[in-house]
Design goal:
Number of strands: 6
CATH architecture of the largest domain: Orthogonal Bundle
Number of helices: 19
Number of domains: 3
Helix content: 40-55%
Strand order of the largest sheet: 1-2
Bound molecules: heme C
CATH topology of the largest domain: Cytochrome Bc1 Complex, Chain D, domain 2
Length: about 425
């Protein structure tokens, strides 16, 4: 008798964690994984705050928007939301009272989440997240953006929520990657350019604008497709290198920096190997041809190394490199595997836009610590030690050193990135 009633309770989903998702995995565990894919934590948890209690201020062109409390607290959080209410907020940006969310919440991407994933996510948030009764700060934008109904027109014009459509020309694995990238992963929210009303110019791989490079706090976010014209880019990376970058925050060619560090730390670093491979396989389909960028010949690399080794008649940029960078990245620009990334051939060094390189020199960077790669490798920032002109000389040197082949950098470009550093949240 007892056994039977427990079983039926479990079947009706009343015992937390006991219900099974359609594919047989534990529903709450599956929901926790979907929350990782969707990186809900990144915005809905303030630094040092309780998980999912909201409060993170997100700077936008409209003003500061606060992420809300999505714990199951009935008053401060979403405890009163039915699954249908939750699904509508998540995929359409519409709350139970009919008001509209600002697109700082990436619902146009989440519109692509499957019913099964939304179901699991709901179970996870309601059953496994601790309720927090502190309300998140209220978003108060200036007129006319404080008129939430106005977002209805935004939705009609730009954010029209479209469900996921698998591409019949792709393999099952590539379509799984497409589902993650376009949907939960909302990779386009940073990697796709935005239009006049902050809308992403495309929400799926059918459009050439999709993942062709975006902009974030003065950092030109690299394109994830060969025709995105971002210099070296990832078009030349193997599937395994892309998977490593996303799963460990580092690979033989690069180490993650800027806002992407948090994405790896909280989201992609927790993806299963199968999903990492699927994402990498899908990204490869966007770059059927390698990027138009070609490295200079090896003889150029040897010439730079010889010049730095001899250390005579150095340009200002080369001298700054020896003084401040060479100890870790070495005179041959090859760094040390898995510790100091190579600067010779690096995509951040050769990107069309030097903002990522300038940002790294000014602010430094540190690798995320994830299960697959727990060590944190730190690069100090040089904002206090170098002026705009020096950073420009150094960056220009790097973009022409070894096999690197990219344009020179001006002090004005450095000044702009420096100004943006103070504004970043
Ligand atoms: C890039 C930042 C960002 C990410 C990532 C994000 N959200 Fe949000 N979310 C927001 C912001 C900002 C709001 C409030 C928007 C507003 O006030 O109009 C919000 C609002 C919501 C709401 C409405 C709650 C309410 O009653 O106000 C729900 C539900 C929600 N998010 C769930 C999620 C889930 C689940 C995920 C992960 C799959 C997620 N969000 C990921 C930024 C984000
Ligand atoms: C103490 C060692 C150290 C010094 C000194 C150092 N770096 Fe780094 N650098 C690192 C580490 C570690 C990383 C990886 C951190 C990350 O990007 O997550 C890194 C990353 C980078 C990256 C990003 C590489 C990529 O693949 O995205 C660039 C560019 C860079 N450094 C340039 C420089 C320059 C230019 C200097 C001199 C001004 C310098 N570094 C000085 C250790 C150092
Ligand atoms: C919050 C903004 C943001 C989101 C969301 C985001 N990225 Fe990024 N991504 C960046 C930034 C900024 C960089 C540049 C980092 C650097 O150069 O060190 C980057 C770099 C990358 C790179 C390396 C590109 C290169 O040329 O070096 C890959 C690959 C990548 N992202 C994949 C993804 C995938 C896949 C997703 C979705 C699961 C994603 N990103 C979501 C901001 C973001």
């Amino acid at each position: 008798m007892l056994k039977l009633s427990l079983l039926s309770l479990a079947a009706s989903g009343l015992i937390a964690g006991a219900a099974l998702a359609q594919d047989g995995t534990d529903l709450v565990q599956k929901g926790a994984y979907v929350a990782r894919l969707g990186d809900c934590m990144a915005c809905h948890t303030a630094p040092g705050g309780k998980p999912y209690a909201g409060g993170l201020p997100i700077k936008s062109d409209l003003g500061t928007i606060y992420a809300t409390n999505i714990t199951p607290d009935p008053d401060a959080g979403i405890g009163k939301y039915s699954e249908a209410d939750f699904a509508r907020a998540l995929r359409k940006g519409v709350l139970p009272d009919g008001s509209h969310l600002y697109p700082a919440m990436p619902y146009p991407s989440y519109a692509k989440l499957s019913d099964a994933d939304v179901h699991a996510l709901y179970a996870y948030l309601m059953q496994a997240v601790a309720p927090v009764s502190t309300p998140a700060p209220e978003t108060r934008l200036g007129f006319p953006f404080n008129q939430r109904w106005g977002m209805m027109f935004w939705n009609t014009a730009f954010g029209d929520a479209v469900g996921f459509a698998p591409d019949p020309d792709l393999t099952a694995e590539e379509n799984r990657g497409k589902y993650i990238v376009e949907g939960a992963g909302h990779c386009g929210s940073c990697h796709t350019p935005r239009g006049i009303a902050m809308q992403e110019k495309a929400y799926d791989g059918d459009s050439a604008a999709y993942l062709s490079g975006g902009e974030l706090n003065g950092w030109d976010v690299p394109a994830l497709r060969a025709d995105g014209s971002s210099g070296a880019g990832i078009a030349g990376w193997s599937t395994a290198e892309i998977a490593d970058y996303l799963g460990k925050g580092r690979n033989d060619r690069a180490a993650v920096g800027g806002e992407m560090t948090a994405v790896v730390q909280h989201s992609t670093g927790h993806m299963s190997n199968a999903d990492l491979n699927a994402v990498a396989a899908y990204l490869k389909t966007l770059s059927p041809a390698p990027a138009p960028w070609t490295p200079k010949p090896d003889s150029a690399a040897r010439a730079t190394t010889a010049k730095l080794t001899a250390a005579t008649d150095l340009s200002t940029g080369a001298r700054l490199y020896i003084d401040s960078c060479g100890a870790c990245h070495f005179v041959n620009g090859k760094g040390a595997k898995d510790i100091f990334p190579q600067l010779d051939g690096a995509s951040v060094v050769n990107a069309d836009s030097p903002t990522g390189l300038i940002h790294t020199i000014l602010a430094g960077a540190q690798t995320p610590s994830v299960e697959r790669a727990p060590s944190v490798n730190l690069m100090p920032g040089f904002a206090a030690r170098m002026d705009d002109k020096e950073v420009a000389e150094l960056a220009s040197f790097l973009r022409g050193a070894w096999t690197n082949d990219a344009g020179a950098v001006t002090a004005d470009q450095v000044a702009k990135v420096r100004a943006g550093l103070d504004k970043a949240p």
